[in-house]
Specification:
- The strands form four sheets. A seven-stranded mixed beta sheet has the order 3-4-5-6-7-8-9, sandwiched between helices. Strands 11-10-12-16-14 form a five-stranded mixed beta sheet, with helices on both faces. Strands 1-2 form a two-stranded antiparallel ribbon.
- The protein has helices spanning about 5-25, 45-55, 90-95, 160, 180-190, 205-220, 250-265; strands at about 35, 40-45, 65, 80-90, 100-110, 110-120, 125-130, 135, 140, 155, 175-180, 195-200, 205, 220-225, 240, 240-245.
- It is globular and about 50 Å long.
- A hairpin with a 4-residue loop joins β6 (about 110-120) and β7.
- The protein contains seven helices and 16 strands.
- α1 (about 5-25) runs antiparallel to α2 and α5 runs parallel beside α6 (about 205-220).
- About 30% of the residues lie in helices and about 30% in strands.
């Protein structure tokens, strides 16, 4: 891939490989777990991967935002910023479910322009930039070319389904599949392995920036719940939610979720 982001993609590849070696030291489903304030789980793997990502990715003059690193507001003054989640889907990792990943996003002037996602359990790698498209396990891929929701595969948050937040979508003309890790779901959409994923529940930038960069790099559709482009490296990294799909499903996806976005906003 010849790209203005060739160096960035090389760094992402090196970081994903380093993360793979870290994960080889751990057994999903058999790892000690601590809990942060708010009851989010964290493991030694989260911290170890965070360290190798920082070592492989960060250069002078660049900013850093990671779920596992104390936020440094100096990132707000940087044009180029890494936004990463060393282990997205920690709950699934702890349970031994193969729905977790390393998520690396690169942002330039607030725009997600490159990303890499690796699932150690399935050995799937997604890598791309806005001027190259996306490689899935080293091969060019593209998002779903489906034009209708009929028969579409929509990936839903496992925890959102468990809380009953997807009941309003149960009788649609599509299949809803519950899965952990929003980053992994976005990666699958970027490679055309699913048609749609969305969340009407707030997510942090580190949850979605890498996956959004991949979907957009592949030519897919990404939108905030406010129907705006995703911008990142904001002072408050919490987003209201995110929508993503193949390029020709944009209008039908927006029509599907719009009534429920208003309900979700009123419930907050």
């Amino acid at each position: 891939m010849t790209s203005a982001y060739a160096d960035i993609l090389q760094r992402i590849e090196a970081a994903l490989e380093a993360a793979r070696l870290v994960f080889a030291r751990f057994t999903p489903g058999a790892i000690e777990t601590e809990y942060k304030i708010g009851h989010d789980p964290v493991t030694e793997a989260d911290r170890a991967v965070d360290a190798v990502l920082r070592q492989n990715l960060l250069r002078d003059g660049e900013g850093w935002l990671s779920e596992e690193t104390a936020d440094n507001p100096s990132r707000l003054d940087k044009e180029r910023v890494w936004i990463v989640d060393p282990l997205d889907g920690t709950r699934e990792f702890v349970k031994g479910l193969p729905e977790f990943c390393v998520s690396i996003g690169f942002v330039e002037n607030g725009r997600p322009v490159a990303g890499g996602i690796y699932n150690p359990a399935t050995k799937e790698t997604f890598l791309g930039a806005i001027d190259t498209g996306v490689l899935y396990n080293g091969q060019p891929s593209r998002p779903s070319q489906r034009t209708t929701l009929d028969g579409a595969l929509i990936l839903a948050s496992r925890s959102e389904v468990k809380r009953g937040e997807w009941k309003q979508f149960e009788n649609g003309p599509f299949k809803v599949q519950a899965m952990g890790s929003v980053a992994y779901k976005l990666a699958l959409v970027s490679a055309g392995l699913a048609d749609i994923t969305f969340t009407l529940t707030p997510k942090n930038e580190w949850d979605v920036v890498a996956g959004a960069a991949l979907v957009q790099s592949a030519g897919g559709f990404v939108s905030t719940l406010e129907k705006t482009n995703l911008t990142a490296n904001r002072r408050d990294p919490l987003l209201s939610g995110l929508l993503a799909s193949g390029p020709m499903l944009m209008d039908e996806l927006l029509s599907l979720v719009e009534p429920h976005i208003r309900v979700a906003e009123q419930a907050r």
